[in-house]
């Protein structure tokens, strides 16, 4: 909600300055995120595997976010905005991809991993598996 208000304020101020919409879009993207690859990590509920995957990839220098494909029950459900934000979407298993494949455009790079739902959040073994599977995919 706060980000929407900030974006509206920026657009309002840019209109006052008569800046083109193309330039406005450049200002809306958070410059503090840098030019790192933006990776969206998706599991079922966004509680264990995708946040751990996001943490593991962040440790390798990527800009990451995590969410869940079970839209009514996920802590942070996957959305069109999150997909648009991402340079790449990584699903922890094919079932998660199948549940929301309609949201992913054909031009968006997707990686499918095969990580079972047998780990706790930030489990060391899961962190290692995440990095190995991501690099192999």
Strand count: 4
The radius of gyration over CA amounts to 17 Å
CATH class of the largest domain: Alpha Beta
User: Could you give me the name of the CATH homologous superfamily of the largest domain?
Assistant: Response regulator
Shape: globular
**Averaged pLDDT, please?**
85
Characterize the structure shown.
It is a single chain. The chain has 137 residues and is α/β, with parallel strands linked by helices. The protein has two domains: 1-30; 37-136, Rossmann fold, CATH 3.40.50.2300. It is 43% helix and 14% strand. It has helices spanning 2-16, 21-28, 49-58, 80-85, 94-100, 124-136; strands at residues 38-43, 63-68, 88-91, 110-112. Strands 2-1-3-4 form a four-stranded parallel beta sheet. α3 crosses α6.
Produce a short descriptive summary.
With 137 residues, the chain is α/β, with parallel strands linked by helices. Helix content is 43%, strand content 14%.
What layout of secondary structure does this protein have?
Elements: H1 2-16, H2 21-28, E1 38-43, H3 49-58, E2 63-68, H4 80-85, E3 88-91, H5 94-100, E4 110-112, H6 124-136
Parallel strand pairs: 1-2, 1-3, 3-4
Jot down its keywords.
137 residues; Rossmann fold; 4-stranded parallel sheet
